[in-house]
Amino acid sequence: MDIKEVDIFIPCFIDQFYPDTAFNMIKLLEAAGLKVNYNSSQTCCGQMAFNGGFWDDAKKLGEKFITDFNNHRPIVGPTASCIGYVKNNYGKLFHNTAYHIEFKQLQKNIYEISDFLVNVIKVTDFGSVFEHKVTYHDSCAALREYHLKNEPRELLKKVKGLELIEMKDTDVCCGFGGTFAVKYEPISTAMAEQKVNNALETGAEFIVSTDSSCLMHQNAYIKKHKLPIKVIHLVDVLAAGI
Known about the structure:
- The chain is of the alpha/beta class.
- The chain is built from 13 helices and eight strands.
- It has helices at about 10-15, 20-30, 45-50, 55-70, 80-95, 100-110, 115-120, 140-145, 150-155, 180-185, 185-200, 210-225, 235-240, and strands spanning about 5-10, 35, 75, 110, 135, 165, 205-210, 230-235.
- The radius of gyration is 18 Å and the shape is globular.
C-alpha cells in the first residue's frame, strides 16, 4: 500500500493527560516518511457515552467524528480502546442511516498505531534506544476488541537495549474498564494490585501498553503504594532515542 500521508486521531486521555505521547506518535509517523495531518476541531469519539448507555449523545459525537475525518486518508491513533470502539460499534449507531457510507469508509481507514506500523506500512525499526527491562500489558480493548497481540511485541523487540519479560496472566484485565473503575472501586483496585504485582515479579522497570487509560489506572496504584516500577506508553518507548 503506497501511503504518503495520514490523519491523526488524539483520544481524550492522550490530549488531556499525556500530550507528549501524541507528539511522539507524530515523530514516529514522520520518521516513517509520512506527512501528518491534524484536524484541531476533532473531539471525543463517543465511547464513554456509548458504554454508559447514552446512545443519543454517542451518536452526536460520532457524527462529528465522521465529519472531522471525512476523507480517504488513513487515520492513526495511539489507542486500541477508542479505535476498537469506532471500528466495532459505529455500525450500531449508523447502520442504514445518512452516515452509512461514511462510517463504512471510516471503519476501513482507522488504525491503532502498532497495527498501522507493522501491518500497513511495514515499518518496525526506528533505531529506538530504551535500555530498560519492560513487561507488556495486553489491554482488554487491544486484545479482545481490536485483536491486537503480536504487533506491539514485534516493535518492542526492535528497540535497542530493551529487554522484554512477559508477566504472568498478561491477558487478564487490570481493572480499569472505564466507568467500571468508578462503579466497582474495590474490585477495580484489587485487579490493579494483581496486575502490578505480576509485573513486579518479572523484575521489569516499566509496564508498557497501547492504552494510556490502563496505564493511568495502574500508575495510580503504583504511586499510592510507592512501588519500584513505572508505566510508559508503547509510542513513548518507540520514540526514545530518535
